[in-house]
Specification:
This protein is an alpha+beta fold. It has 3 helices and 5 strands, in the order E-H-E-E-E-E-H-H. It is elongated. It starts with a strand and ends with a helix.
Amino acid sequence: MNFIDEIGLAELAGMEPVAESDQFAIYAAGADTYLLVQRHNGTPWTALRLSGDGIFRVGSLLIDAMRHLYRDVASNLSPIALEANARRRE
């Protein structure tokens, strides 16, 4: 794994994007290597080079982080919490 401070379209030419969103993309770079590229218009594009195994390991960590970040949101949307909030407003 290594971090690339700045990457441009020239370096990505010929690479196949395997996943894209509005600000991120993952490119297959060959030899079981992938580039996670932040493609934000307001800043220079940066990348993280990962192995195929690294993609799975980072993906698992991101899932754990999402559970942590949204635990409060989910608990606030539970039927019990919604009912309690409705009672407080009355």
